[in-house]
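Model it.
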Amino acid sequence: MNWQRGSQPESFENRIRLCDKQWIQLRPQTNLAVTEAFSLELDWLRSAGLQATRQRLALARLLIGDRRNKHVTAHSLHLLAVEAGEVMSLATVYNTLHTLCSAGLLKEITVDGSRSWFDTRVDDHPHFYWEDTGELADVPEGKLSLMQIPDVPEGTEVSEVDVVIRLRRK
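Modeled.
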């Protein structure tokens, strides 16, 4: 795909803004303003059968662009998006996060009924939750073992196991 970096192009339909506040100018024949810069994010969205909208690509860049696992809240992700120069509402961030969860690309972790985190690591794994700071982090690999999962009622199966270890300073 042909593109060039530079100042803001004249036509909105044929541009996309990168998180570093640079613009990419695309040729008019492209339907979706996507370049090689978004190939990881585009592949991630398409792997779940999702359409790559501007907002989804921008949030995907913030979630997986650095290839590191993250725990974000909708508010923290919205702040990151605004800092990156993206224009989108908090409601759009919430809706996108829930769409990504439904598609299996993110896992929602709820510590209490008032706040959810969204984890880019979707396998079953335990978390530490610091009550004083409100932070969520993965428990180091191999540091927790479950002896046995109890028998489940007939006609059901375990879909996932969530373990959150709540911590507070002494």
